[in-house]
């Protein structure tokens, strides 16, 4: 097989027809209202609440700032239990709040926090748990809820991969105290850069909205040292347009995931994560695990793809606990994180996005199978 002429990336944003976006742009130009809770911002918050099945949602300029503000909203301090198997922003958000991350290992089926190991990591300084629905597969939310209630802890979900994910028809975003989404260009739903916090009551929504706007409650009152994390009107308009195509795009992603599963089901040494009964998945990522029984290593496969102009990604390698900023923490010791350490060396995310050609999916599988 010859190398592809155009590169195939792990993901590509969906671009709606430009003419349709131009209509929104014209509206913004004419109104001269560019940011600070404009009409598209208000409309997008409402439409997202409806689409996602959540009560309150506050838009942000990106997911990282949303995570930082989420922790600040609940005045989290001390130590927070979290996963090392995520994008580095998850732990950075703790760092920016002067909170000590305490890493707990992941479970081997879906690579989410291993709930059986959380309690052993709780100390008198623990104030919260920050799990991640990795690749959009829901964490064991009920068990996490029980632990949190027992020990009086708050739960903030990093749900950046879990846009539109439901479990028995209920949004996973309704779990815990707060959930945070990312609308980065590489996500299922994107606003170029963007994000959101989901909360369950009006008072919390108000505090979040103050915090993302410098702490202003009104023209002359600052209630807290807030930050500027507002989404602007161009981003919000792009989001409104994306929403119109979302269901169609989710179907396309599922078709791609199913095709990978079909083509790789008998490949020795490759294992995959299957859909969970009762869960509507996001298909933001398609991870495979390249085990020691596969003929070459994960890294060799990753390099081989590059020769064909195919750019898979090793999300999430290295583990967050392995970055120098965090590696000195006692919970970063690999002996504390055996499953995460092993999975990070074997996982590879294959390309998946709505405009990915099915023939390209077959070619990618052929490279793996040949
Ligand atoms: N929590 C979790 C669990 C997260 O996964 C993330 C972000 C966050 C928190 C923080 O949310 P944000 O603050 O980002 O909203 C990417 C994204 O930048 C990042 O948003 C994402 N997670 C992470 C998993 O992936 P990189 O460094 O791998 O991105 P990059 O630029 O290498 O892009 C990947 C591929 O996507 C490229 O090879 C090509 C394609 N691409 C990318 C961009 C930016 C495009 O085709 N068009 C584009 O505009 O981090």
Shape, per Cα inertia axes: globular
H/E element string?
Answer: EHHEHEHEEHEEEEEHEEHEEEHEHEH
Distance between the termini: 10 Å
Name of the CATH class of the largest domain: Alpha Beta
Question: Order of strands in the sheet with the most strands?
Answer: 2-10-9-6-5-3-4
**CATH homolog superfamily of the largest domain:** Type I PLP-dependent aspartate aminotransferase-like (Major domain)
Q: How many β strands by DSSP? A: 17
Main β-sheet description: 7 strands, mixed
CATH names the topology of the largest domain as Aspartate Aminotransferase, domain 2
Q: Helicity, in percent?
A: 25-40%
Q: Which regions contain 5 or more consecutive residues with pLDDT less than 50?
A: none
Task: Give a written overview of the molecule.
- With 370 residues, the chain is an alpha/beta fold.
- The protein has 2 domains: 18-241, Type I PLP-dependent aspartate aminotransferase-like (Major domain) (Aspartate Aminotransferase, domain 2, 3-Layer(aba) Sandwich); 246-369, Aspartate Aminotransferase, domain 1 (Alpha-Beta Complex).
- The protein has 10 helices and 17 strands.
- It has helices at 18-31, 39-52, 63-73, 89-95, 141-151, 202-211, 233-264, 298-307, 338-344, 358-369, and strands at residues 8-9, 56-60, 79-82, 100-103, 126-130, 154-158, 166-167, 170-171, 178-182, 195-199, 216-218, 221-222, 270-272, 279-280, 286-290, 310-311, 347-350.
- The strands form 5 sheets. Strands 2-10-9-6-5-3-4 form a 7-stranded mixed sheet, sandwiched between helices. It has a 3-stranded antiparallel sheet with strand order 8-7-14, with no helix packed on it. A 3-stranded antiparallel sheet has the order 13-15-17, with helices on one face.
- Helix 3 (63-73) packs across helix 4 and helix 7 (233-264) crosses helix 10 (358-369).
- The radius of gyration is 21 Å and the shape is globular.
- The relative contact order is 0.18.
- The mean pLDDT is 97.
- Bound molecules: ligand T4K.
- Ligand T4K binds at residues 9-13, 62-64, 86-87, 89-90, 132, 158, 160-161, 182, 184-186, 195, 311, 313, 315.
């Amino acid at each position: 097989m010859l190398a592809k002429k155009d590169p195939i990336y792990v993901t590509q944003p969906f671009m709606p027809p430009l003419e349709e976006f131009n209509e929104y742009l014209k509206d913004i130009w004419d109104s001269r209202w560019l940011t600070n809770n404009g009409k598209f911002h208000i409309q997008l918050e409402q439409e997202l609440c409806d689409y996602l099945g959540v009560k309150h949602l506050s838009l942000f300029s990106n997911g990282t700032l949303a995570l930082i503000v989420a922790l600040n909203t609940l005045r989290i301090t001390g130590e927070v239990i979290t996963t090392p198997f995520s994008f580095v922003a998850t732990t950075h958000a703790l760092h920016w709040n002067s909170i000590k991350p305490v890493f707990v290992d992941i479970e081997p089926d879906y690579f989410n926090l291993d709930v059986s190991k959380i309690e052993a990591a709780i100390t008198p300084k623990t104030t919260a748990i920050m799990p991640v629905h990795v690749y959009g597969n829901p964490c064991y939310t009920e068990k996490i809820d029980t632990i949190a209630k027992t020990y009086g802890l708050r739960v903030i979900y990093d749900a950046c991969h879990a846009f539109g994910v439901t479990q028995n028809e209920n949004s996973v975003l309704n779990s815990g105290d707060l959930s945070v989404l990312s609308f980065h260009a590489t996500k299922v739903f994107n606003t170029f850069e963007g994000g959101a916090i989901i909360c369950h009551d009006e008072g919390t929504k108000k505090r979040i909205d103050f915090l993302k706007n410098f702490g202003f409650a009104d023209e002359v009152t600052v209630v807290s040292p807030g930050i500027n994390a507002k989404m602007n009107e161009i981003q919000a308009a792009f989001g409104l347009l994306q929403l119109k195509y979302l269901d169609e795009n989710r179907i396309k992603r599922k078709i791609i995931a199913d095709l990978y599963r079909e083509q790789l089901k008998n490949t020795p040494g490759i294992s995959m994560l299957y859909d969970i009964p009762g869960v509507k998945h996001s298909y933001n990522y398609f991870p495979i695990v390249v085990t020691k029984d596969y003929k070459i290593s994960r890294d060799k496969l990753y390099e081989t793809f590059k020769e064909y102009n195919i750019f898979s990604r090793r999300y999430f390698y290295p583990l967050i606990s392995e970055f120098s900023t965090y590696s000195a923490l006692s919970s970063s010791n690999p002996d504390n994180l055996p499953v995460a350490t092993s999975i990070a060396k074997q996982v590879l995310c294959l390309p998946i996005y709505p405009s990915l050609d099915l023939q390209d999916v077959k070619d990618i599988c052929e490279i793996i199978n040949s």
